[in-house]
Design goal:
The complex is a heterotrimer of chains A (541), B (192) and C (272). With 541 residues, chain A is mainly α. In chain A, 65% of the residues lie in helices and 0% in strands. Chain A has one domain: Cytochrome C Oxidase, Chain A. In chain A, helix 3 runs antiparallel to helix 4 and helix 7 packs antiparallel against helix 11. Chain B is α+β, with helices and mostly antiparallel strands and 192 residues long. Chain B folds into 2 domains: 52 residues, no CATH class; 129 residues, Sandwich (Ctag/Cox11 (Pfam 04442)), CATH 2.60.370.10. Helices cover 24% and strands 34% of the residues of chain B. In chain B, the strands form 2 sheets. Chain B has a 5-stranded mixed beta sheet, with no helix packed on it. In chain B, strands 2-4-8-6 form a 4-stranded antiparallel beta sheet, with no helix packed on it. In chain B, helix 1 packs antiparallel against helix 2. Chain C has 2 domains: 117 residues, no CATH class; 140 residues, Cupredoxins -  blue copper proteins (Immunoglobulin-like, Sandwich), CATH 2.60.40. In chain C, helix 1 crosses helix 3 and helix 3 runs antiparallel to helix 4. The relative contact order of chain C is 0.14. The chains are: A mainly alpha (541), B alpha+beta (192), C alpha+beta (272). At the A-B interface, helix 4, helix 5, helix 6, helix 7 and helix 9 of A face helix 1, helix 2, strand 5 and strand 9 of B.
């Protein structure tokens, strides 16, 4: 199988950087190799997942019982704010960028990302940004506590940390933009000859569309937070009614970024699951072309529905009707995706290795989050749901059992390819079952809490909410601790285990499975042949 | 574009790829800059949107209409609309700010004069910039001001009391589902 | 459900769905638990809140039906089409007919759902013929109520003692949902609210009234309610994060009969 990349071992290109990695620790600082950077991104994402998770544990600990037991309400607000930013910008997005780095060149038969040095810069901005961001916790006045949505005027009450928070968000944004430019340049310019757009794996498609969404959304966020900064320090009055501005305008600008951001987080997850389900169903992805079109329509719709996050700010009737209709329309392409995954499994020959288990859980639980999203889209009902735990349950179903579950699926799916060893299936399955049960214990009762009237972002509550909060917290602790199983499984897998073949999974399709496990440091220096590309194309069955 | 220069250096030896990358990256970077600008362009766009849809209840904010522009014969005596007045003041110790009357009943199309009273409670000079909006927001599309103290910054001597008039008119095409309108003024302090 | 309500056609249309869904949830969780812990949205005490509840139950019902279909197919597939049972993979990967079908059917369902939602939204925005206006101002961290034109205004602050919050005393039934001076309004009267805030954005929410509305500094918003289920005490909270004590600025509405309200208002005027 592993005949394609053997040529790489012969150093016949005359380039002096075609040897293996540089020895020693400096390798990781200086590397421009897509596999090294992919690894760095993934490790960074995992680290942030645990830091953000620790914050979530503090939140659930305080909410374990009514009354103030452990933390001051203001510190609680810092935790909810920072948990969100750390998880979104530090955990999920870098992890997806890591997967893009590792997999996209191997999937499209390219030797590396198009802009390797910018790739290195894009990554190393992130640790700097998050060191700065997390250090604001120790500044006078504490870290940001106005919610991750940074609504003025509240966010302007942040202490000394304010400019540092804004600056770190700028850095996170620049990093994402660089990553997105790199993905676009790679996919547009570096596809192997014969790798037409409609022969690309669906993961590459979803990431390409995500990258364009990033370029659309992140600069707008940068603009919005810059306006906050000048409002605070340079006497502009963008969001201050006193000077002729409008605090509601921030919400419009923020959600013009914020809603596409939601899809930036979920589209690559769709891509991952669309790779894995066909593999373990031993059957091609149903409706490849309609998956591509559905992804593109979701991306388009995501840019024109932002104000459904703000039904309660007082919009004219026509505005509310428009945003309600546009929002529920997203259910159509999203439904197409779910139906396609279901049809892919239908009459397949299914086996249940860990990546497939995570993917099936993704389809079922993400759909649950989609249904609650549909409910939230109904304007009049949103007047009740808005800013309650029902919303918290909704977005954790799409972000945790959606995005994070897809990342776990991806982790187990490609881990043998990355390390060259099979992971321990027993630990992986234990991780899956404990996580899946506990995550539902954690988030499902939050639907009831929200419907019964518990607002979000409160550190204390009436005893009528006590039972479900306690259940939710117990689920949270179990879910949090069970993620250590992933780390254990990962370390074990890096250190050893059964030797992985290049094919790894019986039903796997895609050029990455033609390469050795682990692949050579440089792969596809010579592009794969067109026959090979056609053999692996999603539509070529 | 220093970035595109960087991009072109990525592949030494002037490979085909680098030649393709530079223009693409340049285009994408221009896109990023434009989107950053678009974030700022949303500010005037938002005001335009407010004027068109009544969003925020301040359509036509700060635009003064002269009496000649209005066809004063078009008064709809068959309808009565209640206009309520609200004065918002969050600098309790420094200002007193009240509507002269709580509400008036008007016929769409007719001119109505009312006033607000503001008092500087400090012994020193203060100035304020009044702003206003209407609820429901949609009604701002049908609200015309002939005279309003919100058009200018207001300067007050120490302990001065001012009676500030507003002359307004509701357009006769006010939608049927609106029968009560709140006109709210805010006093915004100007730090000098 | 209370039988005294004059249901609009919208609510009637939705009750059917509601009954099915309540039955489904009750069997899932056990009806005792439903009553005790408050699993579902409140029906509320106004026509609007009942319409909203009906919409909620209708959409929930549609979601439950859709999920039974989708999950049913998935589970069937997982059970029947597994390799360990000797299933051999088919190789089909396209079917224009089913793809058109599963695009069109959800679209139709969505349109059908949007019709009652639109009707309710229009009803919510119709503040015609209100009989009185109360101005609500959010402060960090208390509410201020001003009865427009009556000369009656007061602050409404959390009355739960700190000893309960810091666990030195047992928590009362209305822990964190009790205030020193509740908002008093008459029943069967269309009351209009104008909302604003003094410092940051707050959101005024009483679930029994069926809506929340943001109180935004520098501008006023409006909304209205008409309590039709008789006198009572209805509780809510600030719903928009507004700083340290966001969780500690509850709302209590005391609804009185028209006569009692008049007497209360006179008393307030005289006590100033």
């Amino acid at each position: 199988m592993a005949t394609v990349d053997t040529a790489d071992h012969h150093d016949n290109h005359g380039h002096d950087d075609h040897h293996g990695p540089e020895p020693g620790i400096m390798r990781w600082f200086k590397t421009t190799n897509h596999k090294d950077l992919g690894t760095l991104y993934l490790i960074f994402g995992l680290t942030m997942f645990f830091i953000g998770g620790a914050m979530a544990m503090i939140i659930r600990l305080e909410l374990f019982q009514p009354g103030i037991q452990f933390v001051d309400p203001y510190f609680f607000n810092q935790m909810t704010t920072m948990h969100a930013i750390v998880m979104i910008f530090g955990g999920v997005m870098p992890a997806f960028t890591g997967l893009a780095n590792w997999m996209i060149p191997m999937m499209i038969g390219a030797s590396d990302m198009a802009l390797p040095r910018i790739n290195n810069w894009g990554f190393w901005l992130l640790p700097a940004a998050f060191l700065l961001f997390l250090s604001t916790l120790f500044m006078s006045g504490g870290g940001p506590a106005g919610g991750w949505t940074l609504y003025p005027p509240l966010v302007l009450q942040t202490g000394d940390a304010f400019p540092f928070v804004i600056f770190s968000i700028h850095m996170m944004g620049i990093s994402s933009i660089l990553g997105a430019i790199n993905v676009i340049a790679t996919v547009i310019n570096l596809r192997a000859p014969g790798m037409t757009l409609m022969r690309m794996p669906i993961f590459v498609w979803t990431w390409l569309i995500t990258a364009f969404l990033l370029l659309l959304a992140m600069p707008v966020l940068a603009g919005a937070v810059t306006m906050l900064l000048t409002d605070r320090f340079f006497d502009t009055t963008f969001f201050s009614a006193a000077g002729g501005g409008d605090p509601v305008m921030f919400q419009h600008i923020f959600w013009f970024f914020g809603h596409p951001e939601v899809y930036i987080i979920i589209l690559p997850a769709f891509g991952i699951v669309s790779q894995i389900i066909p593999t373990f169903s031993r059957k091609p992805l149903f409706g490849y072309a309609s998956m591509v079109y559905a992804t593109a329509s979701i991306a388009f719709l995501s840019a024109i529905v932002w104000a459904h996050h703000m039904f309660t700010v007082g919009m004219p009737l026509a505005g509310e009707l428009y945003f309600m209709f546009a929002t529920v329309m997203i259910a159509v392409p999203t439904g197409v995706k779910v139906f396609n995954w279901t049809a892919t499994m239908w009459r397949g020959s299914i086996t249940f290795e860990a990546p497939m288990l995570w993917s099936i859980a993704f389809v079922i639980l993400f759909t649950c989050g989609g249904f609650s999203g549909l409910m939230l889209g109904i304007g009049p009902a949103d007047f009740q749901y808005h800013d309650t735990y029902f919303v918290v349950a909704h977005f954790h179903y799409v972000l945790v059992t959606g995005a994070v579950f897809s990342l776990m699926a991806a982790g187990y799916y490609w881990m043998p390819k990355w390390t060259g060893h099979m992971y321990n299936e027993k630990i992986a399955k234990a991780h899956f079952w404990i996580s899946t049960i506990s995550v539902n214990v954690l988030f499902f009762p939050q639907h009831f809490l929200g419907l019964a009237g518990m607002p979000r972002r409160i550190p204390d509550y009436n005893p009528q909410f006590a039972e479900f909060n306690m259940i939710s917290s117990i689920g949270g602790f179990v879910f949090g601790i069970s993620q250590l199983l992933f780390v254990w499984c990962l370390i074990k897998c890096i250190r050893g285990g059964d030797k992985a073949t290049s094919q790894v999974w019986e039903g796997a399709q895609g050029l990455e499975w033609e390469l050795d496990s682990p692949p050579a440091y440089h792969t596809f220096e010579t592009p794969p042949s067109e026959e090979l590309i056609i053999k692996h194309a999603p539509t070529a069955h | 574009m220093s970035e595109s220069k960087l991009a072109s250096q990525e592949h030494k030896g002037g490979s085909e790829q680098a030649k393709k990358n530079a223009p693409l990256v340049a285009k994408l970077l221009i896109g990023v800059v434009l989107m950053f600008g678009f974030g700022y362009a949303l500010v005037p766009l938002y005001d335009i949107l407010c004027d068109i849809t009544g969003l925020g209840g301040k359509a036509g904010n700060n635009t003064q209409i002269s009496e000649q522009e209005i066809d004063s014969k078009a008064i709809d005596y068959s309808r009565t609309v209640t206009v309520e007045f609200v004065a918002n003041n969050y600098m309790q110790g420094r200002w007193r700010f009240e509507p002269g009357e709580y509400k008036v009943e008007v016929h769409p199309g007719e001119f109505t004069e009312t006033h607000f009273v503001a008092e500087n409670l400090l012994k020193t000079e203060q100035s304020v910039r009044p702003s206003y909006n209407l609820a429901p927001a949609e009604s701002s599309l049908y609200f015309q001001k002939i005279q309003c103290f919100c058009f200018t910054e207001q300067e007050f001597e120490g302990n001065e009391v001012k009676r500030m008039p507003v002359i307004f008119r509701i357009k006769p095409d006010l939608p049927k589902h609106i029968s009560t309108i709140t006109l709210a003024y805010q006093l915004n302090h100007l730090d000098k | 459900m209370k039988g005294t309500v004059n249901k609009t056609s919208v609510t009637k249309y939705m009750t059917m769905f509601s009954r099915c869904t309540i039955a489904a949830i009750a069997t899932l969780v056990g009806s005792a638990a439903t009553a005790e812990y408050g699993l579902n949205m409140t029906e509320g005490v106004t026509d609007i809140s009942k319409q909203v509840y009906g919409l909620h139950m209708m959409v929930l019902g549609i979601c439950i039906i859709a999920s039974i279909v989708v999950y049913g197919v998935i589970v069937y597939s997982l059970v029947k089409h597994r390799k360990s049972k000797g299933a051999v993979a088919a190789q089909f990967h396209e079917s224009t007919t089913v793809e058109i079908l599963w695009t069109a059917v959800p679209l139709i369902v969505l349109v059908l759902m949007a019709i009652p939602a639109t009707k309710t939204l229009i009803a919510m925005e119709d503040s015609r013929n209100s009989e009185m206006t109360v101005k609500i101002t959010g402060y960090q961290w208390k509410w201020h109520y001003d009865y427009q034109g009556e000369g009656v205004d007061f602050f409404s602050t959390l009355s739960t003692p700190a000893a309960q919050i810091y666990n030195r005393e047992e928590k009362g039934e209305h822990y964190l949902l009790e205030v020193d001076k509740p908002l008093v309004i008459p029943v069967d009267t269309k009351v209009r609210f104008v909302l604003t805030a003094a410092d940051v954005i707050h959101s005024w929410w009483v679930p029994d009234l069926g809506w929340k509305k943001d109180a935004i500094p520098g501008m006023v918003n409006d909304s209205w309610t008409e309590i039709i289920d008789g006198p009572g005490i209805y509780r809510g909270q600030c719903a928009e994060l507004c700083g340290r004590d966001h969780g500690f600025m509850p709302i209590v509405v005391r609804a009185l009969s028209k006569e009692d309200y008049k007497a209360w208002l006179e008393e307030q005027k005289n006590s100033i």
